[in-house]
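User: Hey, my collaborator sent me this sequence without any context and asked if I could get a structure. I don't really work with proteins. Can you help?
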Amino acid sequence: MGRQRVEPGSGQESVWDYPRPPLLEDSDRRIKVVFGGVTLAYTRRAKRVLETSHPPVYYIPPEDIRMEHLKLAEGASFCEWKGAARYYDVETDERREVRAAWFYPDPVPAYAGLKDYVAFYPSLMDACWVDGEKVEAQKGDFYGGWVTSEIVGPFKGGPGTWGW
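Assistant: No problem. I've predicted the 3D structure and written it out in structure-token form, which is a compact way to encode the shape of the chain:
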């Protein structure tokens, strides 16, 4: 699929209507993350980041995460909007994934509300849900977006989309 915007239907959002710089908003949706047979996170207090051409990324407060399964990982990355990100390895008795989640320990002032909230790559989890709908992972695994039936693209991240 090319860069042609998909027209959203009733109750849908187009990622091409999301702003740049990204919008940070509170969400009271039911967000659930399961990994290695463990419900790692369940919240109605997530924050959602909306950026042009990307499916939303949900950030979960650490108080609503089984943090004993997250271990600080080596390395960091830098987001031009939010600042320096750190990563977590995620581990249960059944499974381990390296750098499967990330957070901003000291985000830039415009995104201060994200401080220490954790985002998970849905492709590395057993499953992620938004209000009971199982999430599809954004292709490419660079951005970690959560695709649901209410979000239309096309989405940046997959092959051939890096120049968008």
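In plain terms: The first strand starts at residue 13 and ends at 14. You can pass these tokens on to your collaborator as they are.
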